[in-house]
Amino acid sequence: MSRAFAHRVLPFDGVDDFLAGTAPYLREGVEDGDRVVAVTSVASGFVLREALGPVADGVEFAEAERWYRHPARTFADCLGDAEEAARQGRRLRLLGEPVWTSRPEAEVVEWQRVEALVNVAFRETGAWILCPYAVRALPAGVVAAARRTHPESVRGSRVVANPGYVDPWLYSARCDREPLSDPPADAELLKIDVPDLYWLRAYVSDYARQAALPEEDLQRLLVAVTEVVTNALRHGRPPIAMRLWTGPGPVLVCEVTDEGRWAPGTGYGLIPPRGAGRGRFGLWAVRLLCSAVQIRTGDRTVVRLLLRMPHVPAGRNVTVDRA
After folding, report:
1. Domain MEDS: where (predicted)?
2. Please, what CATH class does the domain formed by 188-308 belong to?
């Protein structure tokens, strides 16, 4: 069995196209003894089971809405599955149908970034990943991004190179060059002159509770804010400030700014730490705690932590990829 990593996009138009690309891929995985996982919509899962027949018993099916709930957590869990399969002498063969609608723009960007960085993090696992994209149902920018983040496309029984494929780190850097919107005029402002984390956490707690952020999410926010502010105090340059506001989605936004500039190659905590690094805190864990994290550094550094507010639909704000 070939251990070469593969990450391919399947642009499809209709059920027949979808099945032509996915059913043979899953069937071959079962026959090869791979760990075969199909993450799809409910409708796609139904037609796949019908098409596969008895072979479907060798496939683990998962609902896309649940599986694609959080970019960093899904990234880490799936990477762990790929590594565990490799340790067992098997291959993880994943069919992953991403969910793009009903997401705030910042989350869409993070999922697009994950699609790019999969090519770095999974390279040594030997995993095969196939990502179907409904070309007529999705915004053109989402489909265009898929061609930039997947080295190859599946067309019928053929696999072809994507000429628009972009180096994952270059793609990620482009995401971080997009300008952020200005904080609203009524954003709460706290200037951080002394390293008093007790009062800072009390300030954040008061604002978040008034905004009706659930207690569990508040505790995640407090840990994330503590890490980011501590990093600014240790490595940034004054003045250091924190702003809080609620935005469309709706989301609660906590922004920390300082006048320092990050050194190139810091990685921004975008890939799960490996080996002895597992369990360390830092920006990776901050990404696990928040719905999305936006970082900009140049003349100054801006770190925005976004937590989606619960029980309210996030809307259908799907961004057009610009990377």
Report:
1. 7-151
2. alpha beta
